Amino acid sequence: MDDHPEESEGSRLSTDRETIRHWADEHAAMPVQHREESDRYRIVSESEVTDDHETVDWDDFFARLDDDDHVVIYHGAETSEPFEITHREDALTRSSVDREDLKDRLLEGETVTTEVTETTVVESVVVEEATIESELVGTEVIDESVIDVELTMRECTNCTLHEEGTADNRDWFDQDRYLDSIARTESEPMEAEMGAIESTAAVPYSAELDVEETWAVTREFTERFTVESRVADTDVVETDTVEDRDIDIEGLQRTIAESDLLDINMSPENVLVQCDIETEFSDDDRIHTHFTREHVVEDEVVDRKRLHADVTGGELLTMETVHSEEVVTEDAGTMSGDTTEAGVSGAAEDVGEPIEAEPAEGAGHVTLSDDEIGKTVVDAADEELGMVTGVDDSGNRIYVDAHPGITERIKATLEWGDVDEDDVPVEANQIQHITDDRIQLKEAEHL
């Protein structure tokens, strides 16, 4: 192919395959067609190929070029779009070279350099890329209602009785029922229900109840999320004044749905389908997108109350004595109905200290049983002596395992001589009193 002297300046036109391939190789370009516009061909660099393009084989491209009577215009490496494909007649009309000469040369396969006059009508500035920043600026419930409630549990978690102070507790105790209960034997248990309480006026307390209820509540509500967006940066091809921006509203809505701005446990596709979406532009170039959805939830609600109640009625149930213990006081003579001699009382008054009267014969005698085994034995001063290991069959004697070093104290307390056995015997009349876990011996002068 011969070079033409006019190739040094201006745009070059050609239908020659080698020339067009040479131009394309200098720009690492290839022929493509738009997927949605199959009749539109372009030559673009590999870096500009997008998903909207479909590459075309060079042989198919040249065949299509011949069929459509098109030519390739090469504007040079310094232009933003080096290649242009246009109809032969359009290229001839725009060329400054003699039309007939240019036509003949193109038919011969020559490459022609010429000035091409381009007239472009710019209706609006094309924004190739825009950076949009978005943030969630509001979440609100615009409608809400309860559609069902169900009680799942109710219980009293605490009950406190408060003294009223208007009645005497001793008057409230039913002595007749008490005496009747202790008179019964195990073969005659008290009935489980004794009838209604005759009067509640004298009840010396009131009740305070803590009640906890668990409810299943189904509610329906409409929730709206508002996202504010603004154009932070743009890459504009032309330099004309921007009259308006063509924002991809659907793309913006999808971008927000795919982000983590919305506190919705839904996939982006469900957000776009199930939410009512509205986008509006404000005067300060802000874009507000509202996502509104209706949904139903079931809440588990725990409701706690404190109730104050007065006793207005009741029933008598059972009364039983759960434990009984003989009460022994320091004044044993008074408990047994005896009186002290005047001389002794007078002596006590002289020294200013109480003197325990000598009990009558048989007074204070205790009956021993195997229940005493294991109890701690202490002296009159409440110092530990040992532990009961056995009880005599007669019930009048216990045997004490004295702690090491204490045996001599027990002997001295009981005024005994030497004993050969390890366990020390203690007679029933040497015992002052017995509790649930202790046995206390009398003082030495009363033994």
Name the shape in a single word: elongated
Strand proportion, as a percent range, falls in 35-45%
Q: From the structure provided, what is the oligomeric state, counting identical versus distinct chains?
A: single chain
Percent helix: 10-25%
Would you give an account of this structure?
- This protein is of the alpha+beta class and 447 residues long.
- The chain folds into four domains: 5-114, no CATH class; 151-214, no CATH class; 218-301, no CATH class; 370-446, PRC-barrel domain (SH3 type barrels), CATH 2.30.30.240.
- Helices cover 20% and strands 37% of the residues.
- It is built from eleven helices and 19 strands.
- It has helices at 17-26, 58-67, 88-94, 99-107, 169-172, 175-183, 249-258, 268-274, 332-336, 342-351, 407-414, and strands at residues 11-14, 29-34, 41-45, 53-55, 70-74, 83-87, 112-114, 127-163, 195-196, 205-236, 276-281, 286-309, 315-316, 376-378, 384-391, 397-402, 423-427, 431-434, 438-441.
- The chain has a six-stranded mixed β-sheet with strand order 17-16-15-14-19-18, with helices on one face. The chain has a four-stranded antiparallel β-sheet with strand order 6-5-1-7, with helices on both faces. A four-stranded antiparallel β-sheet has the order 8-10-12-11, with helices on one face.
- Helix 7 crosses helix 8 (268-274).
- It is elongated.
